[in-house]
Amino acid sequence: MDIDNWDEIRTAFQVARLRTVSGAAEVLGVHHATVIRHIDSLEGKLGAKLFQRHARGYTPTEAGEDLLQVATATQDQLTQLAGRIHGRGASVSGELIVTCLPQMSPLMAKTLTKYQADHPDVRVELVVDIRPLRLEYGEAHVALRAGQPGNDLDNVVQELGTMPMGLFAHRDYIFRHGPLNGMEDIPNHRFVRVTNIDPRAPFMRWIGEHVPDENVIYKCSSTNAVQDAILAGAGIGFLPSYMGHERENMVEVMEPNPEWFSTFWCITHVDLHRTAKVSSFVNFLKEEAKAWPDL
């Protein structure tokens, strides 16, 4: 028999525990007639009497004692489960999934490592992807996204900072091809960019609008590959300013333009935002971001 009405089981459990219809009705907050109806219905479905009715109340039969024993164990297990779930929500431990864009990966690696030093029971998964993961389906707990954050009312959106981007070239490239002398000199140089320009990224839009296709001599399927090519000296291209400045062989070939910069947002789902683990990491992330170079 399939159990399709758990209210009847719950009612029978309280009657078996308290031995009276009135006591069960008071605990359940229902009318005593509802209790009797539930008992009669459940006995009909089971094809067995659960109680002996008499003037002093209801005494469980052997079947009723079986139900009491199983229901009591089930109640204990559910209570323990609720305690474990509450404990997980109140403790800073377990798995933490963070997603970010490739240009944020080096900063996030440092941040997550420092966070785990303070919270060693947290297991981290960093998903580096230009695709926005679906927080509502649990694909990530915390997302770092650039551009417009969207208007999903189920997400909590907090501005994290602005990431400056700069045009850089390796010193070897400049030795071979000379410096970039302003916008008018662009046709005389070799550039690196992603194959498919994302119009949501201001620096990608700029290079698509101002650098002729014939001057793009190296295209890559990802921004990580673009960065590798620029660092190897393949040509001029965009790097996060912090990345270009921390490498002594890289030269910024043009004055930074605020039009290239991207605003980054920290996004969490409303259902997880106030859990101890997510709240703890987001607060840590915001403090760390204040000290990030160029951010």
Automatic annotation (TrEMBL):
Please list the GO biological process terms of this entry. DNA-templated transcription
Asked if the Swiss-Prot or TrEMBL record annotates the protein with the keyword Acyltransferase, the reply is no
Q: What is the lineage of its organism?
A: Bacteria, Pseudomonadati, Pseudomonadota, Alphaproteobacteria, Rhodobacterales
Keyword vocabulary terms for this entry: DNA-binding, Transcription, Transcription regulation
Please indicate which superkingdom the organism of origin belongs to.
Bacteria
PANTHER family for the chain: HTH-TYPE TRANSCRIPTIONAL REGULATOR, TRANSCRIPTIONAL REGULATORY PROTEIN
Pfam families xrefs: HTH_1, LysR_substrate
Gene3D superfamilies, per this entry? 3.40.190.290, Winged helix-like DNA-binding domain superfamily/Winged helix DNA-binding domain
Q: Which family does it belong to?
A: Belongs to the LysR transcriptional regulatory family.
Which positions fall inside the HTH lysR-type domain?
4-61
Q: Which organism is it from?
A: Litoreibacter roseus
- Spell out the SUPFAM superfamilies in the cross-references: Periplasmic binding protein-like II, Winged helix' DNA-binding domain
Question: How is this protein named in the record?
Answer: LysR family transcriptional regulator
A single GO molecular-function term is:
DNA-binding transcription factor activity
